[in-house]
Amino acid sequence: MKRKGFTLIELLVVIAIIALLMAILMPALEKVRQQAQKVICVSNMRQWGTIIYLYLQDNNWVLPPEVGGNNWLSRSAPYVQNEEIRLCPRATQTIAEGARQPFAANDSQRPPYKGSYGFHDYVTSNAPDRIDPPDPKKWETSEVREASRVPVIAGCVRLYLVNPEPISEPPAYEGDVAEWESHAGGSEMINYCVNRHNGYVCGAFLDFSARPIGLKELWVLKWHRLWDVEDVLLPAWPYWMTGFKEYPQ
Fold first, then answer.
1. Is 51 helix (H, G, I), strand (E, B) or coil?
2. pLDDT at res. 2
3. Domain range for residue 24?
């Protein structure tokens, strides 16, 4: 009687076929996973758009004043029902927890302690008791033209406020930790130019909309009142950004 079963050669062939199929499928599965994370990130931004709307509705459409250094973070806190919306699904760990840029959350000694998004400092109003002359760059109110091009919050390497300027340069290479750290307290676009979604970050705008933002598009958004998009001199894109979508089109 012949024994039923696989021979060693047959088992090796089956294992080789499975390994080949895994090698073919893994990149596709990873791409699907990354796309799903991008969708979740946009969903987070939609919730932030709702939070921004609710805050402004309760405050006569006047943006939060520049008091305390964490205006939007502290003033939006009562409207946050789910703390997970503070974290991009591609950046849920801090560097101390083992993450590396660009997939690192930022931590702080102040609540909420950890996050992957940064608020835009010019989307505030001048404090009523400000000693210095009012800052003409601040938007003051949500009732402005082209509000759909004014970011309020977006994927960022800083948890707190960022002040982009047209002269800002992008990171020299993807994950340039030294560059990010050197601008950690500065006003550089480098804080937002973080490649979390294959050439995009996700953001919410002053018209309460939310969408992915191309990294090159960051330079042609309306960050403050004096930002003249028509006169912005786009930087020389570093090699790691050359394949990303060009803006404007």
1. helix
2. 56
3. 9-241
Query: Is residue 249 a part of any domain in this protein?
Result: no
In angstroms, the Cα distances linking 164 to 6, 71, 185, 205, 211 are: 65, 17, 12, 15, 19
Phi first, then psi: give them for residue 211, nearest 5 degrees: -170, 165
Identity of the amino acid at 89: P
Cβ atoms of residues 177 and 207 within 8 Å: no
Quick one: 2 exposed, middle or buried, by C-beta within 10 A (0-12, 13-18, 19+)?
Answer: exposed
Q: Residue 206 above 50 pLDDT?
A: yes
Q: How many domains does the chain have?
A: 1
1 within domain boundaries = no
Distance, in Å, from the CA atom of 239 to the CA atom of 32, rounded to the nearest integer, reads: 26
Model pTM above 0.90: no
Other Cβ atoms less than 10 A from the Cβ of 182: the count is: 12
Q: Cα(247)–Cα(166) distance, rounded to whole angstroms? A: 14
Contact between 46 and 202 (Cβ < 8 Å):
no
Q: How far is residue 153 CA from its own chain's centroid?
A: 7
Q: Is residue 247 part of a domain?
A: no
Strands 210-214 and 161-162 turn out to be: unpaired
Q: What is the pLDDT of residues 3-21, one digit of tens each?
A: 566 677 777 777 877 877 7
